[in-house]
Specification:
The complex is a heterodimer. Chain A is mainly alpha-helical. Chain A is about 70% helix and about 0% strand. Chain A is globular and about 75 Å long. Chain B is α+β, with helices and mostly antiparallel strands. The chains are: A mainly alpha, B alpha+beta.
Chain lengths: ~300, ~350
């Protein structure tokens, strides 16, 4: 954001008073927007430093209490849940498995689908593509009951594969890779043919390395998407050892056992923890992300 | 090394477009053949059929002793250089050159040696670890050539390889490509739309027009005895002057506006005819035919005079020491340098 403002100033060096006004205005909007986005986070973070009783009595706070460390530690390492077998680390691990499995699975499936559609003389390739594309109109929520039924019957409930596989078909991914592959010059394909690269070799040796910025961009989007999945994991995992973070937060809030007050502090701490990996991934892969969506390395 | 035989080769696209009309010719072992013609004349299609990138609708294609109609491009033992180089952008120069060999299961050490050898030949030794994006256009084209050389193919195929280079580099690469081909003695088919490239590089030129072969011959034959008005005007810059004329009963050649040319008409001809004269075959200031000069183009080594002769567009090229100005000047026509073409189909009489 800072960079953006700087270029704006550099672009219009004349009529200073007006620039100042507009710059101030821009900044006001940006700051207001940032606050709007950040305040809930700040609230959550600060409130996570109180014990549950205080939170229950006084609600959200804006000054730090003294339970921050304890709450985070408990959130991560205390066995919780109904069966007392699952702690924050396990859930973190599960979330990573879901996020990465989801993203990698989607990339593999959609790349292969796009490869078939673009490079092979299939009779109904365009038709197939549009069929895939229309599945965008059928998100998981619409077909969740049949999906659940199928996975249940296959005995895949309460397994990682049951958690991941039903979600990995991706029309969006297929669409992006299709557009990307179509832009690969025809001569490259022909040069590879003359060099004796068959379909599989061409895919692995040429197409995959060429698509790496695209893969990175889609990985980020899909990882965050998978990490934040809530409905499907809730439905398909009843075994607490398979709970993801997003699911775990709710679990903490819901534990009204022995008339105890739910561990609000821990839940908030867990919410913060759940937010960190996607944020880190986006920050680290930011440049790849932009590259993948804007320029092509061809 | 191999000779290439095309027999009744014919290409029709599924949409019914006839890209290449039935043609037959032989490319001798070690020969450098250039396919030349305007865009859309079928020259690239012909090359791509030889490469195996395009199906042959009809006819037989032999490379060496083998009929390769249904052989995969990778197994034809050919190498192709593309106009946009078609280098693999994510591989280093060395890997680009060695990729085909790697796919043939040749050992790493051997690939390495061959790549080094080819790189040395092409002055690329210092760039083996670079990516194509870090090279200039000329260097990229060399890498593409290197990729072709390391495979030690029977046949080189070039698809307008110099079109993306600037004029100076193109002249230099033209010589390099030719020298390299001579040195390796590999049969080569080269596609271009540039008649200068065709004239300078070829052992034999095949001129194509509208999917049909107009003429096959050495550069000299093509230039001196063009088989049709198309060849005459396509090969050579500035192009040959082609004038509408009539052969009268007295065997005189008369331009449409009544101007009589001081040349004998070809035997057993009468009626309308096309007369072709190359701009450099005219002598300015001699003879009796009036030439109305309208524009003088200064080319350094020579001057080009554009104007009309008997009311038809006409150009004359003179050397730089010949003064020239606009206005009407007499030109002399050397009867031996005049070509006659049929008015019906444009073919040579």
């Amino acid at each position: 954001m800072a960079e953006l403002t700087q270029t704006q100033i550099a672009e219009v060096p004349r009529s200073r008073s007006r620039i100042k006004l507009s710059t101030v205005f821009d900044h006001l909007i940006l700051i207001a927007g940032s606050l709007l986005m950040l305040m809930p986070l700040v609230y959550a973070f600060i409130t996570a430093s109180y014990d549950p009783v205080t939170i229950h009595r006084e609600g959200l706070a804006l000054t730090f209490g003294d339970e921050l460390g304890t709450n985070f530690e408990k959130a991560l390492f205390e066995k919780g849940g109904f069966t007392k077998t699952v702690d924050g680390m396990v859930m973190l691990k599960n979330s990573f498995i879901l996020g990465i499995g989801f993203a990698v699975g989607k990339i593999i499936i959609s790349m292969m689908a796009a490869y078939a559609i673009v490079y092979f003389r299939l009779r109904f390739a365009t038709f197939a593509f549009w069929i895939i594309f229309t599945t965008l109109l059928l998100p998981l929520e619409v077909r969740i009951l049949p999906s659940y039924e199928a996975i249940q019957r296959l005995g895949m409930a309460n397994t990682y594969s049951g958690l991941i596989i039903p979600l990995i078909a991706s029309a969006t991914g297929t669409f992006f890779f299709r557009q990307f592959f179509r832009a690969v010059p025809e001569e490259l394909v022909e040069a590879a043919r003359i060099d004796g690269a068959g379909p599989v070799k061409f895919f692995i040796d040429i197409l995959v390395p060429l698509s790496r910025t695209m893969i990175a961009a889609i990985f980020i989007i899909m990882f965050v998407f998978g990490w934040n999945q809530y409905l499907w994991p809730t439905l398909i995992t009843t075994d607490e050892s398979l709970f993801t973070l997003v699911r775990g937060i709710k679990q903490i809030v819901l534990t009204y056992s022995d008339a105890a007050i739910p561990e609000h502090g821990q839940a908030l701490a867990l919410a913060i923890i759940a937010m960190v990996p996607p944020v880190l991934i986006v920050i680290f892969f930011q440049s790849w992300f932009v590259k993948g969506l804007t320029e092509s390395d061809k | 090394m191999a000779q290439v035989l095309l027999e009744g080769i014919h290409k029709v696209y599924p949409n019914g477009f006839e890209a290449v009309q039935t043609c037959s010719f032989t490319i001798q072992d070690g020969e450098f053949v250039v396919l030349v013609g305007p865009s859309g004349c079928g020259k690239s299609t012909l090359l791509r059929m030889i490469a195996g990138l395009e199906d042959i609708t009809e006819g037989t294609l032999k490379i060496g002793e083998r009929v390769v109609n249904d052989v995969d491009p990778a197994d034809r033992n050919i190498a192709m250089v593309f106009q946009n180089y078609a280098l693999y952008p994510h591989m280093t120069v060395a890997k680009n050159m060695g990729y085909g060999l790697k796919n043939r299961g040749i050992s790493k050490a051997e690939i390495d040696e061959k790549v080094r050898e080819a790189a040395a030949m092409l002055n690329l030794s210092d760039y083996l670890d670079r990516r194509p994006s870090q090279l200039s256009g000329g260097q990229r084209q060399r890498v593409a050539m290197g990729r072709a050389i390391v495979r030690q193919p029977d046949l080189f195929l070039f698809d307008e390889p110099l079109s993306n280079l600037d004029a100076k580099l193109r002249n230099q690469m033209r010589i390099e490509v030719r020298a390299l081909q001579r040195r390796l003695g590999t049969t080569a088919v080269y596609v271009t739309h540039d008649q200068v490239e065709a004239m300078t590089m070829a052992d034999r030129i095949i001129v194509l027009n509208g999917g049909r072969i107009e003429q096959i011959g050495t550069p000299k034959e093509i230039y001196n005895t063009p088989a049709s008005t198309f060849v005459a005007s396509f090969m050579g810059a500035p192009p040959m002057n082609v004038l509408n004329a009539t052969v009268g009963s007295d065997n005189h050649v008369t331009l449409d506006e009544g101007l009589e040319l001081p040349v004998p008409a070809p035997a057993s001809s009468s009626g309308p005819i096309l007369v072709g004269i190359r701009p450099e075959d005219l002598i300015l200031g001699e003879g009796s035919t009036p030439f109305d000069v309208q524009i003088v183009e200064e080319l350094g080594a020579q001057r080009l005079l554009h104007g009309t002769l008997g009311g038809q567009a006409f150009s004359v090229s003179v050397s730089k020491d010949h003064e020239a100005a606009t206005g009407t000047i007499p030109v002399g026509i050397n009867p031996g340098a005049v070509h006659f073409f049929s008015c019906d189909d444009g073919f040579r009489i």
